[in-house]
Design a protein that fits this description.
Radius of gyration of chain B: 34 Å
Structural class of chain B: mainly alpha
Strand order of the largest sheet of chain B: 1-2
Shape of chain A: elongated
Largest sheet of chain A: none
Distance between the termini of chain A: 18 Å
Strand content of chain B: under 5%
Order of helices and strands of chain A: HHE
Helix content of chain A: 40-55%
Number of strands of chain B: 3
Oligomer: heterodimer
Largest interface: A-B, 57 and 58 residues
Helix content of chain B: 55-70%
Number of helices of chain A: 2
């Protein structure tokens, strides 16, 4: 299996972007206390339910996708030989 | 103008096109959808062009609210894609795009299933040229596979229609599933028709023609393809199978499985194809629930989806057009060279991710509230996970790896003006529908009382879901845990017919050849044994072929004489 691509300028996300995003996310959770929420299911009403759900679901998808890659990854010219 | 069946303006215009001067063709391609759209506005609801052919009663045109909303959006898509393709001088592509769009429009207005079948097959036959026009060996092969599967879906449809006709004596294209929504109550004809629709709608395991063929299409061809085929199938399901319970589960699986493939895919147009598959899942869930709210959700989703998916394919097409590659490993940092394309792509990405005030939000909310109303708890959780998945592949991955991420060093020109205008109009529509959903709600099949922004909490929780998903992306990137782009392909169901089936055939052939050789050898051996025996007895040296001297003959006769006289006198 090939190693991930090496780039001259590696893909990174600046700390500033992380900081701003984290700040906005925090604000969204704080605002939640002041907004009336219509919850059909009881767990919807838990503070931060959607926030945690979004984070965990996203991370879960990526990490599971990596496991899937171990099984189905093939070289670029797999079908061409 | 109202006497012409909808769609025919585009089809006939497309057939005339090759005889027009080259410079006029792109303009005509642009004007025809406008004429068709005006025709729809003038067309009152009802049944038209009812004719009898070989004893069958056909209704070529049925105009109702459901066919109209698909008719509108198909014309808009044909117009936007033609605008995007203004630079194309290849008559084959221009003709096939018009005929393809026109036949999709004709299909949604077909009042009977025979007419539907004819248009169904024309969409397959005309659209494949948009793939073949790429000119590569790969595109040719992918197009072949696409054509076989699409025409196969048509053959199943025809068989189903004929069985259904035998059973009921009706060709009318109406609700085919019984009120119970159970497949067990459906006849074999109806089941075959459902399978035909399922293939074109890319149901799980029947889906892979989509990811196989669309990324091989031309830059502009993929934009046309993304709009029509699968949404025609969604229309057909809404018409024929509303409330079919099994579709709910199938739809949820459809929203979920493509997101894992999209995470690890390198070809960004293929990522969009998986994303298309995932979006179809949301619509199929709505069709399966089958309440007025849910069906409205499915139709509204199809409507807005056509626009933002076309927009995303346009932006990735522009990248491919300018840089010559669409692989995430080769791209990055293009916002410097293509700022407008990047901005429009982000609008498309936010729309598909269903950010509040973008078009995806006002459509998806309808389906999700129908899910909540029906108390489908597991479905609701599945769709919420799928929503985070959409944010992953279309919301972040596509724009990030093309326009941001690491700097690929590619410095190219911004997309051509007509492409930018097409993307700009599409992005504008995404925003206008997101801000003012009422005009869209007004043309849906059933009346809408739903207010997407009536509950501020809903917008807030959606923002939380999406932005915390984005936060997860940043955290995974910074910790190196993210699934980095890799120059590789990933196997999918197409492996079965591209590798497994040919290998099985080759294996079977080799086995037959070997068995044949063994059999030959055995026969040969047997033959030799028989011949050897015959040789021994009848050959020149054989006992039975020996020439006996006359003397011994006389001796034997004498002996026989003696023996017989002894026996006689004894």
């Amino acid at each position: 299996m090939n190693k991930p691509e090496k780039h001259d300028t590696p893909t990174t996300i600046p700390a500033a972007v992380f900081g701003w995003l984290a700040a906005v996310c925090t604000a969204l959770v704080v605002i939640e206390w002041f907004v009336h929420r219509h919850a059909t299911y009881p767990w919807e009403g838990w503070p931060g339910f959607y926030a945690i759900f979004g984070f965990v679901a996203f991370a879960g998808i990526v990490l599971l996708g990596k496991q899937l890659r171990r099984v189905i990854r093939r070289d670029d010219d797999y079908y061409n030989d | 103008m109202t006497s012409v069946p909808p769609g025919l303006i585009l089809i006939l215009g497309g057939l005339v096109l090759p005889w027009l001067p080259g410079a006029a063709r792109p303009v005509v391609s642009l004007v025809l959808p406008v004429l068709g759209f005006i025709q729809l506005l003038l067309l009152p609801e009802g049944l038209y062009a009812q004719i009898g052919v070989a004893g069958y009663e056909l209704t070529l045109v049925r105009v109702d609210r459901l066919s109209l909303v698909f008719g509108y959006i198909f014309h808009i898509a044909a117009f936007l894609a033609a605008l995007y393709a203004l630079h194309v001088r290849d008559a084959t592509q221009q003709v096939s795009a018009l005929v393809y769009g026109g036949s999709a429009i004709g299909a949604v207005f077909a009042g009977d299933m025979m007419t539907l079948f004819v248009y169904w097959e024309i969409t397959a036959l005309s659209s494949v040229f948009l793939i073949w026009a790429s000119g590569s060996e790969q595109a040719y092969r992918a197009g072949m596979r696409y054509l076989i599967i699409q025409v196969g879906s048509g053959v199943l449809l025809l068989s189903g229609i004929l069985l259904h006709y035998q059973h009921t004596g009706s060709l009318a294209f109406e609700q085919l599933i019984s009120a119970s929504g159970q497949l067990a109550d459906a006849g074999p004809g109806v089941l075959l028709i459902l399978v035909a629709f399922a293939i074109k709608c890319a149901f799980p395991l029947l889906h892979n023609w989509l990811q196989d063929a669309y990324p091989q299409a031309t830059v502009t061809g993929a934009v046309f393809l993304s709009a029509f085929t699968t949404k025609l199938a969604v229309y057909a399901l809404v018409r024929g199978f509303p409330g079919t319970e099994v579709l709910i589960g199938i739809g949820v699986v459809m929203t979920l499985f493509p997101i894992f493939f999209a995470v690890i895919e390198n070809d960004l147009r293929k990522v969009l194809s998986y994303s298309l598959n995932n979006q179809l899942g949301f619509m199929v869930v709505g069709i399966g629930i089958g309440t007025e709210l849910a069906l409205n959700g499915a139709v509204a989703h199809a409507f807005v989806h056509i626009i933002y998916k076309a927009l995303l394919f346009m932006s990735m097409g522009a990248v491919l057009y300018r840089t010559g590659t669409i692989r995430a490993t080769d791209l990055g940092g293009l916002y410097r060279s293509m700022p407008w394309t990047a901005a429009f792509c982000i609008v498309g990405a936010m729309s598909i991710s269903a950010f509040p005030l973008f078009s995806g939000f006002v459509a998806k909310s309808l389906t999700l509230s129908a899910v909540v109303e029906g108390h489908y708890v597991l479905v609701w959780i599945g769709l919420l996970i799928a929503s985070a998945g959409v944010m992953e592949h279309s919301g972040i991955k596509v724009p990030f790896f093309a326009f941001f991420g690491h700097d690929s060093g590619i410095r190219c020109k911004e997309a051509p003006t007509h492409m930018l205008v097409a993307m700009g109009v599409a992005a504008g529509l995404c925003l206008v529908i997101g801000f003012f959903p009422q005009p869209l709600y007004a043309i849906l099949p059933y009346s809408v009382t739903y207010q997407p922004y009536g509950d501020l909490g809903h917008s807030l929780t959606q923002l939380q879901l999406l932005l915390f998903a984005a936060l997860a992306f940043v955290v995974l990137m910074r910790t190196g845990l993210y699934a980095r782009e890799q120059r590789a392909i990933n196997l999918d169901v197409d492996w079965v017919y591209r590798r497994l089936a040919p290998r099985l055939v080759i294996f079977a052939m080799q086995w037959l050849i070997a068995a044949n050789a063994v059999l030959n050898r055995a026969l040969h051996h047997l033959g030799r044994m028989v011949m050897r025996t015959v040789w021994r007895h009848y050959g020149p040296e054989g006992t039975l072929a020996r020439t006996w001297p006359t003397g011994s003959m006389v001796l034997w006769v004498a002996i026989l004489l003696v023996v017989s006289s002894l026996l006689y006198y004894a």
